[in-house]
Structure formats: C-alpha cells, structure tokens
Design a protein that fits this description.
disordered C terminus, alpha/beta, about 35% helix
Length: about 240
C-alpha cells in the first residue's frame, strides 16, 4: 500500500516537474521476472524508473543510503534493499534472485555508482551474472535530461526528461543457442563480453553526449544476446 501511494504521489510530481517523453514502454514484459538496467547520473534516477515503469520494480540501493534512520525507514517501506558496493554481497545476491523468482522486476545500475560527468562509465559484471543465474530478460532503460532539474526548478521551469525503455534481451553463449543455461559456469571473458554488449545496447538508446566510454556504438556486437520473445506480452 505504501508503494502504491508513493508511486501515485511521485507520478503526479513527475508530471509537474518534468516535460515527459517516454518511449518504448510496451517493451517491458507484462508478466514474469525481468531486470531493468539504467544509466545513473542523478540521485532520483531509480525513483524515476520505478515510478514511470508499468510494472513493479524493486530497487537495489547502496548501503550508505540506510545510514539515515528516516531515509532508511522510507526506503524499507518502499521495498528497496541494500547492497555493499565493491564487494561480493551474498545477501544482496540472494535477495535479487528471490525477487526475480517471485516474478518481480529488479532495477540495477550496471556502472555500480552515479556517473560524475553524466556519461556512461565501464559496466560491471554483476548484472550479467545475475541475468545468467536468474534467466530473466534485461530491459535497458536510458534516462537523459534529469540532471537539469535543480537548475530549472530554481527558475520555476519544467525539465525535459526523456526515458527510453529498450527492447528486452537474454544472454546466450553461442550463435545457435537460444538462451544460456541457468547454473552453468560461464567463462569470465564471456561474462565480460555480455556486460560490454549490454552496455552498448543501453548506449544506443542515449543521446551521443551521454554515451561516454561506449560512444563508438558502430563497433557494438550482439553475439551473446538474443531478443526476448517467448511468453512476452506488451505492457499497457
């Protein structure tokens, strides 16, 4: 109930504060687990995705956000869960897998932290590893323009915000394989390739100025990716 009320209020605020341009919302699977991978340049990014998406998405948040008791209370009521960055957090991994096993969406920022210059930084392998273990499809979500909210708010202007939900995909190991097998061991270099190709898929949805280390999108490959189609239904 708290999440529903909060999302309603946040949705109203989004329409007041932003000039919204939402693209590809039908790409979010209507049923079953999925992972939303977003670029992260502003502190409100996770809330924007969770509010504007047509499905319930659980947010993974850095443990530092729970040091403030009031903020921690609100985040717990909203249903977020903490992760220790820069280390193998088995509790967060188990929680992530459980959330997807229950059929929910999981929101991740594959860069691991906010970008200080608004452009994409090198992605980490945690997202690809979780996708392999869970067999959940990945929906890239590209946000741009939100970093001007403070500037425009002080001038009583609405901020143009573009949110693009890209086409969902799953990982595979070989060109003739439909999907990778859950629980099977994947070579580290192949996981790195999966991360790299997923990040390029995200970069293609962003304006060129936001693409950062993935600016050379013409060199992108998709050898480890297969479109997610089986059982997909459009969200409305």
């Amino acid at each position: 109930m708290f999440r529903s009320i909060a999302n309603f209020v946040l949705g109203v605020l989004c329409h007041i504060l932003f000039k919204l341009d939402i693209i590809g919302i039908q790409n979010v699977p209507k049923r079953g687990p999925f992972m939303a991978m977003m670029n992260h340049i502003y502190f409100i990014d996770p809330i924007l995705v969770a509010t504007l998406a047509p499905r319930n998405i659980v947010i993974m948040s850095k443990i530092e956000n729970y040091q403030n008791p009031l903020l921690a209370l609100v985040m717990n009521l909203y249903g977020t869960f903490p992760v220790h960055r820069g280390e193998l957090d088995m509790t967060a991994i188990r929680t992530s897998l459980r959330i997807m096993q229950e059929g929910h969406g999981l929101l991740m920022a594959p860069e691991g932290t906010r970008s200080k210059n608004r452009t994409l930084q090198e992605g980490r392998d945690g997202m690809a590893w979780l996708a392999l273990r869970s067999q959940a499809p990945i929906v890239p979500v590209a946000l741009s323009g939100q970093e001007y909210l403070g500037h425009n708010f002080r001038r009583l202007r609405r901020t143009p915000l573009r949110v693009v939900f890209g086409e969902p995909f799953c990982f595979r190991w070989a060109p003739d394989q439909q999907q990778a097998c859950a629980g099977a061991k994947t070579p580290r270099e192949q996981v790195r390739q999966m991360t790299r190709e997923a990040m390029y898929a995200l970069a293609k949805l962003l304006p060129p100025a936001y693409r950062g280390v993935y600016s050379d999108v013409e060199k992108a490959t998709a050898d480890t990716m297969v479109p997610y189609r089986n059982g997909q239904e459009s969200a409305r």
